[in-house]
Amino acid sequence: MAEDRRVLTGEHFMSGDHACAEGGLAAGCSFFAGYPITPSTEIAERMSERLPEVGGMFIQMEDELGSMNAILGAAWGGWKSMTCTSGPGFSLMMENLGLGIVLETPTVLVNIQRGGPSTGLPTLPGQADMMQARWGSHGDYEIIALAPNSPQEIFDLTVRAFNLAEEFRTPVLVMSDECVGHMTEKVVIPPKDELEITPRRYTKKKPGEYLPFDFGEDEIPEMVTAGDGYRIHITGLTHDRRGYPVINAEAQDWMVRHLINKILKNKHRIIQLEEINLSDAEVVLVSYGISSRVAHRAMDLAREDGIKAGMLRLITVWPFCDEKIRELAERVKAFVTVEMNMGQVALEVERCACGKAGTYLVPHAGGEVHNPDDIYQVIKEAAK
Amino acid sequence: MNRSASSTTDVVDKQSHPMSDLLRMDRMPHIWCSGCGLGTTLTCFIMAVRESGIDEKKIAVVSGIGCSGRVAGYINLDSFHTTHGRAIPFATGLALANPELRVVVYSGDGDLVAIGGNHFIHAARRNMDILVICVNNFNYGMTGGQAGPTTPVSARATTAPYGNYEYPFNIPYLSIASGATYVARWTALHMRRLKNSIAEALPKKGFRVIEIICPCPTAFARRNRLGTGLDLMKYYHDNSIIKHGADPREADIGMTGKIIVGKFLDIERPTFRDFLVENVWPKIGRK
Between chains, do B62 and A254 touch, taking CB under 8 Å as contact? Predict the structure, then answer.
């Protein structure tokens, strides 16, 4: 009964939130812990119905602090796990997102972004958590964040988030938004055997030989499960390869560099971009999530008027595609960043363009998507 | 790198402790102060683990932050040292994902009932399969002796220089009111009874709480002129009253007066998992 309900192969008319839940299930998620918060709640609701029927476990926690911890615990108990949240809930999850990073725990955190700060706009969209996704937990680290722009893509990218989490033994963020979460569109779920699923990278070493934070050239340590006899110790303190706390600058340097290198050395395996009309582009729109669909319309308007506009759609936002922006900056006139915030990813574009191309921003405080005409006006300005 | 404690490991005779296989001897010496009761509680715990006969591979210890939180780092079982206050939700995920595990949360009063208080009461309400060992030393020892959720009224602490003016939690009462199914309190003096209590609670199901009253000579006792660890043990000896089945409302702890210890509660009610398996899974045809 259980496993054949896991992948709902077929064509569906489905909301982004439900597609996200289905993506998690298809990727092998067996544990969901969450706290209701608009506009992500439908993911939790779907999981509460679906997880018990595929042999998994759903728990509604007392808050987002508990939710984030419970999914880390479940991961070390041997299950693939996820949570979802929005707005203030994302802030509460930051504490233990950091624990997940330091314990190098595979898990998935979905943020269906709404307008902020604080309680903000519970039912309306925003994309203003992008820098929080990058820097929100204290300390230095690198994060993986994916930004879907449709219900189909939130399914696909939730599967990918689970795969990346296992591949790199780290928490992965799906940074969506209220529009994608609440939008209902066609979602095609492939047959189970056509889905690429990354299994947990369990060690083949024996107890006594295995160290929970030992790794090779690729910087990615292998995993075990509590109860397998390895008698591991893992800690949120700065630690060595054994997982034992070591409180000095040398150990800190080793651990922090490892957490950063693990992602940056493997950027080529993580970064996914969509390039539209870039071959002859003079003005490059940089956008992601729901804003990229509006930006696409503005690009078409510009092309109709003879402006050579193209778009770089960030499917992976973090780690950032520095090299791609640098390469484009050598040959294009300007970048126009379109995002539903007052300029977050735009700072990265500006950094990487390094003055070699113009950088423009079409800001939006959130609550609704951009007007394509507003974007078009900036494209015209940038093309001058 | 990898130099932590290695210089001291060499001088520790690994055979010198009869329970050394349940301790990470390569992490000795521990950080606890002379006269602290935490080592005694850990000894009781590992003796209880051995006595319970439970497969040690299937016991996991989760700690939060603080002096008590360091237990996870010294015990040679699968062990997780998490963030401040979050041991219980981490343990919740661990226990639900892997029901073969006996999950023990070993932490302090500040960690469990101040910053982690919400998790504590909700895990009790759900009757989650977790044994909580709460070492209560009446203050935040690791950070230097600040007042906490269990500091008695009028006690001095670094953040209560004129004496504490908040009412403390009574942990057995809080546990029982929140839904725990096994609740006991001992002091670090009651080694045999504490060990027996842990051994009794370890194989049981549901949310079990054992509070251990523990001397903190360096921070709490010194600031309150209560003497050494030994003086506190003598105080426990003279002032503890063993009263099984006592009304937890009578178990408040003050700066002076008696300390009610014993087993307050030992009942059965369906756990979170029991309820799912018995009432939810049949509705969807899951066994």
Answer: no
Q: Which of residues A178, A194, A210 is at a domain's end?
A: A194
* Residue recorded with tokens 């915030």: A341
Q: Does B11 touch chain A (CB under 8 A)?
A: no
One-letter amino acid at B100 equals E
CB B243 within 8 A of CB B259: no
CATH code of the domain containing A341: 3.40.50.920
Residue ranges making up the domain that contains A99: 3-194
Of all residues in chain A, the one with the smallest CA distance to B5 is A246
Cβ <8 Å between A226 and B24: no
Q: Is residue A166 part of a domain?
A: yes
Q: From the list B79, B98, B272, which residue is nearest A77 (CB)?
A: B98
Pairing mode, strands B240-242 and B207-213: unpaired
Q: What is the pLDDT of residues A28-47, one digit of tens each?
A: 999 999 999 999 999 999 99
- Whether residue A206 lies inside any domain: the answer is no
A34/A45 Cα distance (integer angstroms): 10
- Domain of A158, CATH number, reads 3.40.50.970
Of the three residues A194, A218, A244, the one that is the final residue of a domain is A194
Closest CA–CA distance from residue B105 to any residue of chain A (Å): 12
Q: Which CATH superfamily is domain B20-284 in?
A: Thiamin diphosphate (ThDP)-binding fold, Pyr/PP domains (3.40.50.970)
Strand residue runs (E) in chain A: 10-15, 29-34, 57-60, 80-85, 107-115, 121-125, 144-146, 171-177, 184-189, 233-235, 273-276, 283-287, 309-314, 316-318, 334-338, 358-362
Relative orientation angle of helices B117-126 and B87-97, to the nearest 10 degrees: 30
Which pair of structure tokens corresponds to residue B50? 């051995």
Query: Nearest C-alpha of chain A: how many angstroms from B1?
Result: 6
Query: Count of residues for chain B?
Result: 287
> Residue A282, exposed/middle/buried by CB under 10 A (0-12, 13-18, 19+)?
middle
Hey, of A233, A256, A258, which one would you mutate to test binding to chain B, going by the most B CBs within 10 A of its CB?
Answer: A233
Q: Is residue A352 part of a domain?
A: yes
Reported as a single tens digit per residue, the pLDDT across A155-182 is 999 999 999 999 999 999 999 999 999 9
- CA distance to partner chain A, nearest, from residue B2 (Å): 6
Q: pLDDT by residue for chain B (287 residues), tens digit each?
A: 344 444 444 555 555 678 889 999 999 999 999 999 999 999 999 999 999 999 999 999 999 999 999 999 999 999 999 999 999 999 999 999 999 999 999 999 999 999 999 999 999 999 999 999 999 999 999 999 999 999 999 999 999 999 999 999 999 999 999 999 999 999 999 999 999 999 999 999 999 999 999 999 999 999 999 999 999 999 999 999 999 999 999 999 999 999 999 999 999 999 999 999 999 999 988 87
Q: Which residues have C-beta within 8 Å of that of residue A209, sequence separation ≥ 6?
A: none
CB A240 within 8 A of CB B1: yes
Q: Which residue of B has its CA nearest to A227?
A: B58
Mutate to test the interface with A, among B27, B62, B74, B80 (most CBs of A within 10 A): B80
Token pair of B33, please? 């102060």
In angstroms, the separation between the Cα of residue A71 and the nearest Cα of chain B is 6
Q: Which residue of B has its CA nearest to A29?
A: B97
B72 and chain A in contact, CB less than 8 A: yes
Contact criterion met (CB below 8 Å) for A76 and A100? no
For chain A, the domain total comes to 2
B-facing residues of A in 28-47 (CB < 8 A) are 30-31, 33
Is residue A203 one of the residues assigned to a domain? no
DSSP symbol at A62: S
- Asked if A7 and A148 sit in the same domain, the reply is yes
